Give the backbone structure.
Amino acid sequence: MIVHHSILVNSLINSHGPDHFQKIVLEADPNEYSGFLMTVSNRLDVHRESCSTWESMLTLYTNQQNISLACTNYLAHYFSSPLEISLLPSILGDLSDYITIVVTSIRLGCTNYHPHFRQCANTPRFCISRQLFCDGYDNCGLNSDETDCSNRLDQIAVTIIDGRGDWSLVVVAAFFAILILLLLFILYNYRMAKARRKFLRTRKRHSSYYGSSIRRFEADVKESEETVALLALGLRKMFPLMPAETANSRQPQIIPTTTDSGFWLSYECWTRLCGCLYELRHSSHYGSSIRRFESDVKESEETVALLAPAETEDEH
């Protein structure tokens, strides 16, 4: 049986048991206590004759030292843990009203303001639980824990907040704080990497789109330049330069204004050229416009070639 604070051995005696001897084994928590303090109070009249008669029957047989109760009225003894007690239950059970046996867990050494333990007044080396003071039982020996119980303020447990306390809590808190910071750092890096990948994908998509658009624009510009060159060539062939005015000729050149066939054919060619320019301006397919323009230029050249002999004859 593990004794956390204190135990009354009288309550463990089974006087009606079948065994001649009863064995009781007590253990203390090794993390809190060092051993036990046994106090025995005998209220029987002790005489020399009765001492020799009752000595064998009123003896506690322990694994460390045997204690005779017949020849003493009071006894206090310290035992290490574990403690084994063998007794006669038939005798001690009937004498429970006169003999009281208390076993208390003892801690060797404690501070004056320990939150759970308090020093015994008669033996400061012995420390017992604060709950055992003024409980009606002798736990420190000589009833020192039962004196001065009128002032109950002495029994209030005081908790001291000390920075030099248990470091395990500080270590655990620091570990969890570092773990949380590490998780936040990993999450931040993951989100940044995800955003960076998204940005690179978007930039690549836009660059491919605008690159193809630029290439198409350059091709359109090139086609437009070719179209302008063809237009210039056609105009140069359709409208040859007028002969310049010489120094000897003082009379201005007279441009015929009559409605001859050459003038109307030139006007018809000019109208076709204007139509081609309009189609080139409003058409989205430059290739088809260029082909139509080339066919019109060819047709105009043939017309000019046919009209050239007739104009020569008219001049003669």
